[in-house]
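Why this split exists: single-chain examples teach little about how molecules sit against one another. For that reason, every record in the complexes split bundles all components of an assembly together and asks for one structure covering all of them. Below is a record exactly as it appears in the raw files.
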Amino acid sequence: MPLKPLAARKLDAAKLAPLMGRSLLLTDDYSDDELAALLEVAVALAWLDRDGKKTPLLPHELAYALFFDNSTRTKSAWAGAAARLGMQPVIVDGSSTQVSHGETAVETGAMLGMNAHAMGVRHDLILGEGNAFMRDVKKGIDDYLAVTGDSRKVPIVNLQCDIDHPTQTLADLCWLNEMLPEGLAGKKIAVSWAYSPSYAKPLSVPQGLIMLMTRFGAQVTLAHPEGYGLMKRCLASAKSHASASEGSFRVVSSMDEAFEGADVVYPKSWGPYDLMLERVAANSARDTKRMAEIEKEALARNALHKDWICDERRMAKTKGGEALYMHCLPADIGAEVSPGVMAKHTVNVAREANWKVHVIMALLATAKVPDLARRLAAI
Ligand code: CP
């Protein structure tokens, strides 16, 4: 799928129609045309925002979000998106809810969805759980709405799960579209593991990146040390998308090799796969001692690869020594990236992050606002 140049455009109502009522649980659930239509709306909303135009398309509605992990950017983007649409954002720490006392995701969805008009969820720490939790929340809401004959559209937005971080990767895609308006076909994108001493980070960002960036004809390279593989389903998806888009996808074990001639580099850390799997049983047994031991083991394992840093030497290997540096943030400066490289790109990574506001706005508006193309044209 080619990305169109970034410019204010008239939206096509027919292309937006399939997005009405839609939740976003994985980018892989959206067709190429649906993703393109969503991104057109994100761009249109960004343009209006940059022009200082107000877009109160969903006044007096509740945008509820549940976070089972820390967040700065995504919480802020959810609140910013809701406020710009005239909604009231409410963001709740998941551990403070009755989920921690065993209330199920289906029950939680029914309870919260009967009150809310949109629901965001972050549940990213335990493999096999986050995306399933979101699907159950959706079932709870959908069942409630169906049984009560309530016609409200209550989309569920994945604000990071164990498989994907779709609002992040779509924001990244919008940023790439802004920086490389000629499109991604033939561009070399390096998604690389990098050293982190801070914590065993989720796999969902690199997984989401390889599943999404391979859809546009790019040459995507995933680099990681032995033991830091990703979920098989995500690798299979990346291969399949690369083949369909006439791009390519490969996995290497050298950061230098991935950076060689790259147009774009995305170096970030994630946890060792076997230990991330071990967390599943320890978490379900509520074995906090074992969870702490696993975390310590993961950091010790990370420390074997301190040389996996995005520094000036590695950036010099990229195309013209000037690859676009990207990061979802927060970055471990001095570990994932050298202070000098980060200093050079600080404003750009903030601009990259800011796209998340417009992506979330686009998700909520396309799912909920009838006649969106005409409404936006009128603004
Ligand atoms: N990139 C990202 O999702 O940032 P937060 O964890 O701060 O939301």
